[in-house]
Amino acid sequence: MSGDKAPALVSAPSDLIYYHVKDSSPVDPEVKKGYQERYIHSEIYKHFPEINSVVHSHSEAVLPFTMNGVPMKPAFHIAGFLGTEVPNFDIKPLYQDGDVQSMLVNSERFGSYLASKFSKSKMAQLDHNVVLMKNHGFTTVGKSIKQVVYRAVYTHVNANVQSNAIISRNAHLGTHTSVSSLATKTSGRLGDELIYLDEDQTLGCMQMNDSTQERPWGLWEREVEVCPLYVNKAKFQQER
Ligand SMILES: [Zn+2]
């Protein structure tokens, strides 16, 4: 993981810290301080061996869906990986007397509970690719870095699309419409429905997106290469 730096500032292998999956302890006991929330990653890797990459985000577009009672739903064909249900992890019930309620997933216990939200059946299998985290953000998983970055970016985009759909619909129908009726597909007059992808569409779109990830990845890679914020010292040394 990205040591004690913001991930965008990582510029060389020496900026990384390696951890054991079994308990998130550093491989080098003398290493500098790292991220407290590394347990998000280690517990997911521990419970789902097919997962090789995890992204945790505090996306401001996603945050409202962690606390407003509106379920996040797949709004368009690029977000089929969301499935028809996105669970919401709440850390509050896990706190015991004396705990500092920082909201951080900074223990095996918290991380294990978060990992359990990715499965419908006691971690027997991975059923969800994205889990919201109440008043905190979200976590998404993938078989590769490319897949998980794609999912993280489009979870954020989907949240913006869904929010705009709700806002524009409310503006059209009037603000008297209740949140509960917004959250579910309802029958009625034209314009009364928020229509999301159904189960068959989520599966079909996920399959399609998994086969086309190279295109957006190539763009994002280029954006990083040409933006002065990002420095790649390893590449610089090679070129010299
Ligand atoms: Zn966090």
From TrEMBL:
It holds the Pfam family Aldolase_II. One of its GO terms (cellular component) is cytosol. Keywords: Lyase, Metal-binding. GO terms for molecular function: aldehyde-lyase activity; metal ion binding. One of its GO terms (biological process) is pentose catabolic process. Residues 4-163 form the Class II aldolase/adducin N-terminal domain. This is Tropolone synthesis J. It comes from Hyphodiscus hymeniophilus.
